[in-house]
Amino acid sequence: MDVSEPLLVEASAEITNSVGRENETAEAAAAAAANIGGDSSSISAVLVLSIVVFVCGSFANGCAGGFTSPAEDGIMGELGLSTAEYSVFGSIYTIGGMLGALISGKVCDLIGRKRTLPLMQAFCILGWLAIAFAQAAWLLDLGRLSTGVGFGLFTFVNPVYTAEIAPKNIRGAFTSLSPLLLAGGASLMFLIGNLLYWRYLAVIAIVPCAFQLIGSFFVPESPRWLAKIGQEKEVETTLKHLRGKNVDISQEAAEIRRKYARSLIVGVGLMFLAQLGGFTGISFYASSVFEAAGLSSSIGTTSIAIIQIPFALIGVLLMDKVGRRPLLLVTAACAFLGSFLAGLAFLLQDFGLGKESTVILVLSGILVYYASYSLGLYGIPWVIVSEIFPMNIKGSAGSLVIFVNWTSSWIVTYSFNFLFDWSRAGIFFIFASICGSIVIFSLKMVPETKKKTLEEIQVSMIS
């Protein structure tokens, strides 16, 4: 992939030149920024406001992901779309995400984390307006593509910004709020989508986008990014706002020669496997899955909406208690079980056995699967990726990882309907095998990052 070559060149150059080129001013700024995630767990009003504004984008992202399932019948009927055309509409969102991901790291490094928000929401709001007023498939697709570009930018800046401003003792909980809000947005679409006209649903999805756009003008910039560009005075001012005026923000910083191969393997591997596990495909076309099993789509999607938020909330509470790695292992194993149960149900259906048990097994399997992703399997890769890359390659590495995420998401969302038509059982067995491979990958490669500073994590990735 072309993206990886400049990344590795950049990383190599940074390894060779980093010690020699740092001056005293940059060291002072870095020392101040190194306190992010330090011993203090002070929570100020500014910190809370910043987190709320940024994670609101996750709620908006969840609305985008949950929109296509309840809107499917309405859009296809009104605009006369075929299954293939609707698959394009659903999956083109992830193509937009790829495009946004390609530039996300560079944009965030160039203009900062804070100023990336108005840019991404311009894409999102214009995209939703295009969908809401579309009279033809081309405008519908263009709007979906635009929202994808916006959220492609957001999926990098959100966890990075949160990790860079949050104290280390609660960084995992703050970062994992995003999956909770993502589940909330999707659940809202599932619940009200059964009641509202699809164009009204698109207008409602604009509300959290507008909230984040307005809120972006009231949050501070990331102190780590300010340190990177040498704005040491602004670093100290921002830290005092985030931690509170009475908190000591001084801390020593040391220059460490780092290696990046393991960080890249962990980041790319987790994103790739988590997406290929099928979550976006099942989410985008959940109605079709339930109808194929002989279950009302409204009952199925409502059940998903009910369980998503509680399990995502539990994940937030457990993230800094049990750790990222154990939670990842458990949720990946449970996602394997859920996919396997759904696959078994459709296999029985293919042989004309157990019609009643098919409905129960599919519903149970999908709910276990969704609970697993909500509890941690969806969010933990984002938490880990936000923590493992050093500042000097975070932009390039982040772009690569997010690009992989959106690419694999597109593969799943575009191919889902075709694979589902090929073999309803087979596609879920494929998802089960991929979820099982996440367990093996995590045991071999993924480190525990609980209650470590970002600098400590990056040092641990050398081995």
Q: How would you summarize what this structure contains?
A:
With 463 residues, this protein is an all-alpha fold. 81% of the residues lie in helices and 0% in strands. Helix 1 packs antiparallel against helix 20, helix 13 packs parallel to helix 20 and helix 16 packs parallel to helix 18.
Structure, described:
By secondary structure, the protein is mainly alpha-helical. The two termini are 26 Å apart. 59% of the residues are buried. It is globular. It contains 22 helices and no strands.
Spell out the helices and strands N to C. Answer: HHHHHHHHHHHHHHHHHHHHHH
State mean pLDDT (0 to 100 scale): 82
Please outline the major beta sheet. none
Shape: globular
Query: Span from first to last CA?
Result: 26 Å
Helix content bin: over 70%
Radius of gyration: 22 Å
Overall number of strands: 0
Number of helices: 22
Strand content: under 5%
Structural class determined from secondary elements: mainly alpha
Give the uncertain stretches in residue-range form.
Answer: 1-40, 251-257
Question: Can you give keywords for this protein?
Answer:
0% strand
Spell out the blueprint of helices and strands.
Layout: H1 4-21, H2 24-33, H3 45-79, H4 83-111, H5 113-132, H6 137-165, H7 171-175, H8 177-193, H9 198-204, H10 206-215, H11 223-228, H12 232-243, H13 261-276, H14 279-284, H15 286-292, H16 297-322, H17 324-350, H18 355-377, H19 380-388, H20 391-422, H21 424-445, H22 454-460
